[in-house]
Design brief:
The chain is α/β, with parallel strands linked by helices. The protein has a single domain, classed as Ribonuclease Z/Hydroxyacylglutathione hydrolase-like (Metallo-beta-lactamase, Chain A, 4-Layer Sandwich). The chain has seven helices and 14 strands. The strands form two sheets. The chain has a seven-stranded mixed beta sheet with strand order 6-5-4-3-2-1-14. It has a seven-stranded mixed beta sheet with strand order 7-8-9-10-11-12-13, with helices on one face. Strand 8 and strand 9 form a beta hairpin. Helix 6 runs parallel beside helix 7. It is globular, with a radius of gyration of 18 Å. The termini are close together. Bound molecules: zinc ion (2 copies). The site of one zinc ion (ZN) has 7 residues, from loops.
Length: about 280
């Protein structure tokens, strides 16, 4: 499984000289499975450039797994090349809702007045499905989606392909559930991340910032490291960087995260645009 980060910023795009090192685009991660299947995690502004790359390939089927529908995770769709070319088939998966289908909810953004063209006008074949409650197969991988602690219905994903595991939990506040008991299985998202080779996890706030943002749905870097420790992941990648965080400030937080992990865990990564990790 080959993983490539196209956007690692949280909440709002943050381009500019202070963020050029790790990038200003919001959440989007490309996963190429062992059998060649293309899977995309979230459709933040990072998906625009990925789309341009995909247009150079033969048309085919793409799977887009949405964690939730906050704007920073869907804002790139209007500029995702394959959606606007006939011949592509896009299968979207996302969190269930009791009030509206996934297509209707995505259309709220991809329609006037927020966007000039409606989703129904897109030439590509777009199919929308609620992520199944039970693990399901996409290509050579088994995918598992579970609700995690955030603001509004939000999924995390676990992708297992040829014995290797990627966990993707970009918006997550496990601290709110970690006090339920000593049993790690009660911690939000734990089953998704347990024993993963790589965990891309919300690392939005400094410890000081978190004190004023309890319940906003995100983690401090210390909470991200604690979660990675509890889940026994091999490597943590700090993800969903606060839009106010400069490259230099991110690197200052890195040491704090590295010191909080167990000795048998790999040194953490700071997710940046262009980062590639191959598992297996
Ligand atoms: Zn987000
Ligand atoms: Zn969110």
């Amino acid at each position: 499984m080959k993983i490539r980060v196209w956007g690692a910023r949280g909440s709002l795009s943050a381009p500019g000289p202070a963020t050029v090192g790790y990038g200003g685009n919001t959440s989007c991660v490309e996963v190429e499975l062992a059998d060649g299947t293309s899977l995309i995690l979230d459709a933040g502004s990072g998906i625009r450039e990925l789309g341009q790359r995909l247009l150079g390939r033969e048309q085919g089927e793409l799977h887009i797994c949405l964690t939730h529908l906050h704007v920073d995770h869907v804002e790139g769709l209007g500029f995702f090349g394959p959606l606007w070319r006939a011949g592509w088939k896009l299968r979207f998966w996302g969190p269930p809702s009791t009030t509206a289908t996934l297509r209707e909810r995505v259309s709220r953004y991809l329609s006037p007045p927020l966007f000039p063209i409606g989703l129904s006008e897109a030439p590509a074949e777009a199919v929308f499905e609620d992520a199944p409650r039970e693990p399901w197969r996409i290509g050579s991988a088994v995918i598992e989606a579970q609700m995690v602690e955030h603001r509004g219905p939000t999924l995390g994903y676990r992708i297992e392909d040829e014995g290797r595991v990627l966990a993707y939990v970009p918006d997550h506040e496990p601290y709110l559930t970690a006090a339920l008991g000593d049993e790690p299985k009660w911690i939000s998202g734990w089953a998704l991340a347990a024993g993963a080779d790589l965990l891309l996890h919300d690392s939005q706030y400094t410890d000081e910032e978190y004190l004023g943002r309890l319940g906003w749905g995100h983690s401090s870097v210390t909470h991200a490291a604690n979660f990675a420790r509890a889940a026994g992941v091999r490597q943590l990648a700090m993800f969903h960087h606060d839009p106010m965080r400069s490259d230099r400030e991110l690197e200052e937080l890195y040491d704090q995260v590295a010191d909080s992990l167990r000795r048998d865990q790999e040194p953490p990564l700071i997710a940046r645009e262009g980062l590639e990790v191959i598992l297996g």
